[in-house]
Amino acid sequence: MIMAEVKLKLKKKPKFPLEADSITPDNFAGKTLNEIKKLPLYHARDLVTIGDFFDVSGKAEDVANTKIIIDGDVSNVKRVGEKMTGGEIIINSDVGMHVGNTMSGGKILVKGNADDWAGAMLQGGELEIEGNAGHYVGSAYRGFWQGMQNGVIRVKGSVGNESMLWAKSSKPSNKWPTLYCGSASSFLGLHNHGGTMVVEGDADRCIGADQSRGTIVIKGKISRLLPSFKKLDDVNEITLPNGEIITGKFAQYSGDHSISKETAGRLYIAIK
Amino acid sequence: MSQKKIITHHDVLCPFCGTLCDDLEVDVADNEVVEMRNSCQIGTKKFFSSNPSGHRYLKPQIKEKGSFRDATWDEALDKAADILLKAKRPLLYGFSSTECEAQNVGVELAEYLRAILDNTASVCHGPSLLAIQDVGAPLSTLGEYKNRADLVIFWGSNPVHAHPRHLSRYSDYVRGYFRKDGRNDRFIVVVDPRKTHTAQIADLYIQVKPNEDYELLNAIRAVLRGVELDAKEVSGVPMEEIKKLVEILKKCHFGVIFFGMGLTQSVSHHRNVDTAICLTRELNDHTKFLLTPMRGHYNVAGANQVFTWTTGYAYSIDFSRGYGRYNPGEFSSVDLLMKDEVDATLIVASDPASNFPAGAVRNMFKHPIIAIEPHHTPTSVYADVILPPAFAGIECEGTAYRMDKVPLRLRKVKEAPEECLPDREILERLLEKVKEKEGK
């Protein structure tokens, strides 16, 4: 079945960040265009509507069959796709903070860069970013001990600091939060509790700090390895928890040993 | 020759740094501070700065055509209320150098205006609060350290200059109940990239490379866990020295880490504090260990307390949706100003123009500024309205929280000059004016 499409085109660039947590297939499903236009947005301290800032066209179906396509420069529009459970969102430009945060299903494709907190506390679904992403990709919000718990984030470019903070997997419920990215800044996989991270290029310092379990694969170089990681051996093949196999020559490290003497945390760095 | 009558005030609190000394003696004659005893240099300066001088604002000021003119309170508050109501995303910033009752009214004003509310922890010990939210913190009051601590670590802090009486009141020279011989009963460790004056009086000085504290703390934790590490040297410190330090940490009876902005405002910010807290927690497997942030402003801890009990969050709070939301990095003053998201600022007892990054200050100056500020400062000279306050703790009473979150009552030793009003009253009148203009 072909998905029903709702097209949003930004009419005027917001002066202040526009908080658009109402832009999700869940909120659009089963609504007429007029009803969609009346959904709330926050612009600084004003309560406005989608119709005030966007031209809306197309048609919405049920959640799973609704695709939202956003055109225009929405780099200052925050929280698109917040808590979505299904359907699809395509953003044809850069996007503001918190895109796809706490989503549990469906797919978001960002064709430009995403600002901080992209896919924060993801519970499921797929977030793809063709450009770079800001800090805290797939991270836990302040004070939360369980961050991203399932789903996949793919970032072609770089991710910022503290991505995948407090990521947590669950073997019994087959949940494997996974991040694929081009390169990573410092503190990737901080306080990791089972998250999987695959970095195609280089990574900065403090990777896997305070990791108690989980898998981090760096296919490029790392600027500075934490002293509390210990080299185990060299491997030619890595099997990720989700079943995927990565081949190539890697040095296998265990850590972070600052948490305990024995640890299930693993860090692989390519040998060139 | 007529003799001025000198009134001596005893047990006065010092409203300068987070140590909040409570044993000052202040001589006042003709409503002027003439002599101070027991106070440090910076505290003394603050008391003397309340005396009449060309630097003090004595009447409300309104800027017209680029220069200030005296105004009545009503005029000035009217203009201030207009600025705040016209703005779509106003910022209320500062609060750390005033008393809790004023801070409380500030929260009410911010909520009413749906503004952003932030205090100076945002550029100071905010990262400590972030770390505490992530991993908790084993803290204590300063009296415990005074009476019990036999190992004191100053990590990235320099109390000789920043908290001059901390050493003699709580952490180093003071004689405590179980530490009867004072300095001889304590082992002092300083970790700092620079050999500071505090480092010069320490028993052990560890020179860490700048911005590599995280790695050093991380290695100490691993060695404490009994792991033989591959590295020969971490952050410029040889492994032998790390092992020696770990033995010292394990063998003490009661240890404490006092950390300053060397941890919170160097690269890795809150993560330095995060790992320092984890180290402290793990040390409790071997002995008793605690840590305490060396808070700067005398009531920044109070600002965090007041904001937390009224809104649920300690700083960087956005009320734009009518309820408080918290996210440093998104709603913190510097980040908002750098992105030019703020269109009016109310500064209470602070001088961001001297402390914020140039880009943030430039953006702040583009929009109207209201300053509640007693002196000429780089911020106040660019303000549109200046509301002159009385000095909390010198010219009016109030409550302040010491760095270990102990609330103490500030004293009044002299009258405020001319038209100066307490911060609390200014904010109350401003809130009243704002409500009146909104017709509520």
Descriptive keywords:
heterodimer; A: 272 residues; mainly beta; 13-stranded mixed β-sheet; elongated; B: Rossmann fold; 2 domains; nine-stranded mixed β-sheet
Q: How would you sum up this structure, described in words?
A:
The complex is a heterodimer of chains A (272) and B (440). Chain A has 272 residues and is mainly beta. Helices cover 5% and strands 36% of the residues of chain A. Chain A is built from 3 helices and 17 strands. Chain A has helices at residues 25-28, 33-37, 50-53; strands spanning 4-10, 18-19, 40-43, 46-49, 54-58, 66-71, 77-78, 88-91, 107-110, 126-129, 152-159, 178-184, 193-199, 213-218, 230-239, 245-254, 264-270. In chain A, strands 5-1-6-8-9-10-11-12-13-14-17-16-15 form a 13-stranded mixed beta sheet. In chain A, strands 4-3-2-7 form a 4-stranded mixed beta sheet. In chain A, β3 (40-43) and β4 (46-49) form a beta hairpin. Chain A is elongated and about 60 Å long. Chain A starts with a strand and ends with a strand. The model of chain A has no long low-confidence stretch (mean pLDDT 96). With 440 residues, chain B is an alpha/beta fold. Chain B folds into 2 domains: 61-123 and 298-397 and 417-437, Rossmann fold (3-Layer(aba) Sandwich); 126-293, Dimethylsulfoxide Reductase, domain 2 (3-Layer(aba) Sandwich), CATH 3.40.228.10. Chain B is built from 17 helices and 21 strands. Chain B has helices at 41-49, 73-86, 100-113, 126-135, 142-148, 159-162, 166-171, 197-200, 213-224, 239-251, 261-264, 269-283, 300-311, 333-338, 352-355, 358-365, 423-437; strands spanning 6-12, 24-29, 32-37, 61-64, 67-70, 90-94, 116-119, 151-155, 187-191, 204-206, 233-234, 237-238, 254-259, 288-293, 317-318, 325-326, 344-348, 369-372, 385-387, 398-401, 407-410. In chain B, β9 (187-191), α8 and β10 form a beta-alpha-beta unit. In chain B, α2 packs across α17, α3 (100-113) runs parallel beside α17 (423-437) and α9 packs parallel to α12 (269-283). The model of chain B has no long low-confidence stretch (mean pLDDT 95). Classes of the chains: A mainly beta (272), B alpha/beta (440). Chains A and B meet through loops of A and α4, α9 and α12 of B.
